[in-house]
Amino acid sequence: MIRFIKTEETLPLRSEVLQQGKAPALCENPEDSKPDSFHLGYFDETGALVSVLTIHQTNHPKLPHTGYRLRGMATAPDARNKGFGKELLLAAIEHIKTQLHGDYLWCIAREVAYPFYDKLGFESMSDEFTYKDPGMHKEMYLPFY
């Protein structure tokens, strides 16, 4: 089941998956509390929260129109490759398109996630670069227009 959740609910998975065990309280992003941000969670059949993401309205400087940025997407290691993350992201995209009338979604993707985003139709819009987190990253986006 997919539902809107609070920032605090995203933090344990962000810590485990994205921040190498950093204290959950230190895994908040400044955009989490923006009024135009929302958080979604995927709950499995046992009721466990197994995948999270955050979206906030931020236009990308290279793109026109109204953009939304994906941040903090994480799926529990034992819940990967079951389609939960895909379903969660598709629900977020549908919400952006139909309720918020956004024109595109963009993110700074980790190298390990490039194939995931490619399969969903995201396009690369930068060369690879190093970012705050270990490993290579690139900017990717999904246009709705």
UniProtKB/TrEMBL annotation:
<dbReference type="Pfam" id="PF00583">
    <property type="entry name" value="Acetyltransf_1"/>
</dbReference>
<dbReference type="InterPro" id="IPR000182">
    <property type="entry name" value="GNAT_dom"/>
</dbReference>
<keyword id="KW-0808">Transferase</keyword>
<dbReference type="InterPro" id="IPR016181">
    <property type="entry name" value="Acyl_CoA_acyltransferase"/>
</dbReference>
<feature type="domain" description="N-acetyltransferase">
    <location>
        <begin position="1"/>
        <end position="145"/>
    </location>
</feature>
<protein>
    <submittedName>
        <fullName>Predicted N-acyltransferase, GNAT family</fullName>
    </submittedName>
</protein>
<keyword id="KW-0012">Acyltransferase</keyword>
<dbReference type="GO" id="GO:0016747">
    <property type="term" value="F:acyltransferase activity, transferring groups other than amino-acyl groups"/>
</dbReference>
